[in-house]
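SAMPLE LOG
Freezer: B-3
Tube label: C17
Construct: single chain, 498 aa
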Amino acid sequence: MNESLLLNEPAGRSICFLPAFSDPQEWVRTIIAFANGVGGDLFIGMNDAPREVTGVPEKELFAWEEKILKTVSTQCAPAILPQVSFLRIAELAVVKITVVKGSEPPYHLVEKGVEDGTYIRFGTTNRLADGDYIAALKRQRLHHSFDRESYPQVKTRDLDIESFKRMYLEKNSEFVTASLLRRMGLTLDSDDDTVPTNALVLLSDGQIKEGLFPSAIIECMRFRGNDSSECIDEKVIATNIAEQPEAAYQFILGHIHMGTRLDGLYSIPRWEYPVKAIREALYNAVIHRDYALKDLPVRVFVYDDRIEICSPGLPLSSIRFDATAITQVAIRNKQIYTVFQRLGLIDRWGEGLSIMTDELLEYPEIGIKREESDLYFRLTFGKGIKKEDRIQLEVVPDYKQELFQSLNTTLSFERDRETLYSSILRKLLHSELSRKQLSQKMKQKTISGQLNKIITRLLNDGLIGRTIEEKPNHPYQKFRITEKGRIFVDLLNNKKKR
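STRUCTURE (predicted):
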């Protein structure tokens, strides 16, 4: 980052400025918060507001480097390994501490322990994480998602999932059976019965869902003018979550105008807002909201000059924001996301943001602004958003470099045949297959040791997953390609084309 960009870069979730090393706890808390989040850069020797370079005495630089590394190693747990470097800006020395997103959260102060010493980055401040957020960080470390957890006291047979069954049958021409629910990871075996995961409860209708997740709803409001002083229409959408985004979308369409645009000699109908982008934002709000926060609904506010979509929970630690972009690299509720895909409600991973980006090009008068407020993440589509406050959207997986490295070092391509790695992944693109079925499709008489090794490698690399994750040796176990695997196949295809 050059000097001019740094002087204008706003402080936020992944960047912090401190004028001096005055309070050791402040920069240590920032380092912990970065490790628990998306990572970030801490600049010491720069004031934030107003932005000015205060500098650090050059003779103290190397002593501070040693002190920083020692302080972090003794006060933070698990281990955090920041990178310390020095910059010269406006003829003054600035210390830059770079922290990468940690893989073993929750990171915390040793002396205070996890419950009282875990910090998260919230906008431009560091906050003590509460119990719910600490639990989310622990799930992240274990690669678990909240929607795969269950309530043992609730039985699958007690849920009203008739609407979900009809939607699934209509889309896939397949009846929803107990076996299918199990294969999709929506139910878990418990003694002689099955229990639903949180995902299936949220996909149900009725009292059980309302009791366990009373705020798994969307509150829609239309205000007169540009403030919230007068509400002229409102709607609470409390159906199963698969039906909620479309209902909210229809509410918005009922309160915005359809105009026209000229295309040569023809007038083409055109909504006043980029409705495809708004629809994608609604689905993102429902899929990626934090359902562990049971007192907060999704909220949709329509004003004369803007539309706000508010989703409960801070953005994922794997969704990074900077001055100009949203970069999405992971999914909070993996089971819900998979079900929405199977129902045809969303496209493949990453394509939603691409749809939003493409449509926004046709609406230069509309900008998107993002904000973090309390425990909400808000996207605003507005007519009067200043150009400097607008964001762009992009999908850049943080493991893309890793995949390219794999392509260049571990996979070899021959002109007339695919590698066994890519062949297995392609066979899983459109169906879930057992080990035996994969062996048969590879035209092997028996399951070879080589196939077992490759399956293990693909599992370890996260390119494929098990359909029954909690029981690896289940007799009905099958394998499915992951979104990381799909991107890997795309990279394979691109490499072959070149």
